[in-house]
């Protein structure tokens, strides 16, 4: 029972929200914030895998998000709608309700492959190459998209609104919210499985002492690549979901600014803490909304917040710890017996 | 039968000749000591054998495999484990996790097994935990299973490091100055532990040590290194009387008599 208590809790929470949405208890603005929370949870937990658990320094997470966003969106528009550029629909529009997870996953896979391209040169040698390369890749992805006119270039890409409408035509439920809940749950579940296995803990050994890890039998280069691909793949999935919230994307949404936001979430929540990253993503989404009236000043306030955090609580809310470590009572609910050694 | 054969091993750090024409045949079940003054190249030999450095020249054959070009985890997978002169435990992982992760080369499952919790994953994880628990009991570390190594006393950390190496079920165990920084009481315990481990696990042990009491007590054979070259080898008795060894340790002769 305990083994599934977190699944149950999450399931009921999602159901509650979905019912509230369906019954019009939540206005569109609140729905939007909840959906952004989901996307931000995926982004922060997946970046934490690399920057927190593995102790590397990746600074271009939004680049992978962009890849996923565009791949999923273009696939959907090409397959399920009649479009000026991509011609008539290839598949019946209604089938999108089954195939959306597939195109979403495709976006994730392509983003993971781009992650592999980054990982190969970055992890061949030790040092701070990853930061520089991810920074470059973030810029390259953004300018590449700006210069590909078929997908709208700098003007952006739209048509995902029609996708969402076709879903609603089949069954009228809040589809995007459902996919975001599923994606968020999937992402956290995946990372949790990874970091609690002996296999996945290999990346923590890499962080603590890479030389010792390699000499004691961890294939360090392989582990770093796997973790990095997992991380960028999940960022791609976050991108695909993000694209369907507003039904419109443009390269401007995936700048280094966005990457910085994700990094703030990771450091706010605490390196190497999954629950910390979830909490900080939720909190940060709210802070971002509260600061919205400040407009440009927002970009003074948020870095300031980060500096204060680094000064007064450098390990973040929950550095290297989980909620269950801070509140041991939660263990009774969430940690299966026998797993406590 | 030789478990490890090193031929003509030579290594340069830039212009510095750290190891020169080092030869060794390590017999199965043997306890061999490697001694020599500071900077003689002992740790470098260990680093070369475990695949961390690739030698400028020479061959290394471990259990019938040429290992000179292999990466460290590949050498480990063949059954070689070691400890480090300056303890290198993973400090944000618990003692128990340290003992588990060192079994990485024997996992038998990969990323998909991890995600889907395949049968292979479950068997392997069960086996890993079992081995780790055995090591906890054998080395009397049970009490510290959930502690972080950095919070524990030095002598204990040394023992955990030996445990982490043993958890891999190696054929060859290499210890780099296991007695360094220990008080006399801890050194006695260590001598007992190493002898006991050898009998219990029936493995080959190769150790670097400055503490002559340790070396003279447990090694059946000793190789002496000076400026990267082997200057003597033989039984503890022979080494103790070898004039070249005494010469190399000049001014340090007390440590040989000790
Ligand atoms: N990575 C390196 N780069 C350059 N020189 C090195 C490196 N590692 C070791 N050396 C040098 O190689 C020589 C042999 O060093 P090594 O650490 O093998 O000695 P050792 O016999 O283990 O000494 P100690 O008893 O102090 O541990 C020393 O002169 C050392 O300064
Ligand atoms: Mg040394």
Describe it for me?
- The complex is a heterodimer of chains A (341) and B (258).
- Chain A has 341 residues and is mostly helical.
- Chain A has one domain (2-339): Orthogonal Bundle (ABC transporter involved in vitamin B12 uptake, BtuC), CATH 1.10.3470.
- In chain A, 73% of the residues lie in helices and 1% in strands.
- Chain A contains 15 helices and two strands.
- In chain A, strands 1-2 form a two-stranded antiparallel sheet.
- In chain A, α2 packs across α12, α4 runs antiparallel to α10 and α7 crosses α8 (198-208).
- Chain B has eleven helices and ten strands.
- In chain B, α3 runs parallel beside α6.
- The mean pLDDT of chain B is 92.
- The chains are: A mainly alpha (341), B alpha/beta (258).
- The A-B interface holds A 190, 193-194, 197-202, 204-205, 207-209, 211-220, 226, 230, 272, 320, 341 and B 50-52, 71-73, 76-77, 81-82, 84, 88-93, 96-97, 100-107, 109-111, 113-115, 117, 121, 124-125, 128-129, 133, 145-146, 164-165, 168.
- Adenosine-5'-triphosphate is lined by residues 13, 16, 18, 36, 38-44, 85 of chain B.
